[in-house]
Design a protein that fits this description.
Keywords: Signal. This protein has 205 residues and is mainly β. The protein contains two helices and eleven strands. The strands form two sheets. The protein has an eight-stranded antiparallel barrel with strand order 1-3-4-5-8-9-10-11. The longest helix has 11 residues, at 2-12.
């Protein structure tokens, strides 16, 4: 799965140079993931218990390939293993099955034409993340606490439906799956999960 996603991202990136430049859109996404984490022998498929996953993005429209592509920041916070166990900056790509739900075109007489419609989409993202697990025992007899930190590479895939509230304001619901793994010497780190999210997209035009 990781190799396939890497190949897809590699093949789509050259389109960025050939696509017509458009002003970026801002997308703010909030998700709730049921994430399980593993770290060596001390944590084995335990629930992360994060309250919310935030993922703000800056994306560019590419109507010729029915896509949006850009960068994002992701952060899980308020978990069973620290306040910010997962955070990182990565790349995101959205593909709309029947064209972008909102875009604009400039006619030869410099008239700005806005178009909007609801539609389904798929998306994928790749994020190098800082993975931190911390646990402090409340009593001396409860056992030793621990602290892990590692660089992991997260892959996320999902589907969703986006609906235009106005030409420059869209709301979407998404279902996605995430997976990450890595290692530090003899200790192996990983996490995976399924989540439900809601996002709001807007632009200045």
């Amino acid at each position: 799965m990781k190799s396939l996603l890497t190949l897809v991202l590699f093949l789509t990136v050259p389109h960025l140079a050939n696509a017509e430049f458009q002003a970026p859109v801002i997308r703010a996404k909030m998700s709730m993931f049921s994430t399980t984490v593993s770290a060596g022998e001390q944590v084995n498929e335990e629930p992360l218990g994060s309250m919310l996953t935030l993922q703000p993005m800056v994306l560019w429209n590419f109507p010729s390939i029915n896509s949006r592509m850009g960068i994002h920041y992701i952060m899980d916070f308020s978990s069973n293993y620290g306040f910010t166990p997962i955070s990182g900056i990565g790349l995101t790509g959205y593909y709309y099955l029947k064209g972008l739900p909102a875009s604009y075109e400039t006619t030869p007489d410099d008239t700005l034409v806005q178009k909007s419609k609801p539609g389904f989409f798929t998306f994928a993202s790749f994020t190098p993340v800082n993975f931190n697990l911390n646990k402090k025992e409340s009593t001396p007899n409860a056992g030793d606490g621990f602290s892990f930190s590692a660089l992991l590479y997260e892959f996320m895939l999902g589907v969703g439906y986006e609906y235009p509230l106005r030409p420059n304001a869209l709301i979407a619901v998404e279902i996605s799956t995430r997976e990450a793994s890595g290692g530090d010497g003899s200790t192996k780190f990983s996490y995976s999960g399924l989540g439900l999210g809601i996002s709001f997209t807007t632009s200045y035009y």
